[in-house]
Design goal:
The chain is an alpha/beta fold and 165 residues long. It contains four helices and five strands. Strands 2-1-3-4-5 form a five-stranded mixed beta sheet, sandwiched between helices. It starts with 9 loop residues before the first helix and ends in a 17-residue tail after the last strand. Helix 3 runs parallel beside helix 4.
Length: 165
């Protein structure tokens, strides 16, 4: 008997972790996940967009429009920043980050400062926004590779039924 040949690639695996992490987000509009991986393909950290620890997500707003202090934008930590902060101090120099949505300019700053050298993403739906344009400009200037993942498969189904394992 020979080994399976229909296994997923490292890129699909780590993006799958990012997508699964995004499922933890309570944001009613946009769920984003991130997974940071070192050169040895070991997961260093994961994150998703949500409020900081100690900030009750039933008290803070999830709105997208209105007075700035009554929207989520003043309070939500993005997935990339959460993944960097959740790392708890390990060296991220040379790592790559898998994100479900291309990073904003604020997250690009944190990615660059942490030493991450590659951003792999599946969606760039805000490509024409000023924040994303600034993000790409900074990432380019810092030598951070940006790569859109084109998965071989459209979906991976998870099952919690033990008979499927």
């Amino acid at each position: 008997m020979s080994k399976r040949t229909d296994y997923i690639s490292w890129d699909e695996y780590f993006m799958g972790i990012a997508i699964l992490s995004a499922k933890r987000s309570k944001d009613p509009n946009t769920q984003v996940g991130a997974c940071i991986v070192n050169k040895s393909n070991k997961i260093m950290s994961v994150g998703y967009n949500g409020f900081p620890v100690g900030c009750d997500d039933d008290v803070f707003p999830w709105d997208r429009t209105g007075d700035e202090l009554e929207t989520k934008y003043a309070y939500v930590c993005h997935a990339e920043l959460n993944a960097i902060l959740n790392n708890r101090g390990a060296n991220l120099e040379g790592c790559r980050i898998y994100v479900t949505l291309f990073p904003c300019n604020e997250c690009a700053k944190a990615i660059i400062q942490s030493g991450i050298k590659e951003v792999v993403y599946v969606s760039d739906k805000y490509a024409t926004s000023k924040g994303t344009i600034a993000s790409k400009k900074m990432l380019d200037a810092a030598g951070v590779v940006q790569r859109e993942l084109k998965p071989v498969t459209d979906e991976i189904v998870l099952s919690f039924r033990t008979e499927d394992v």
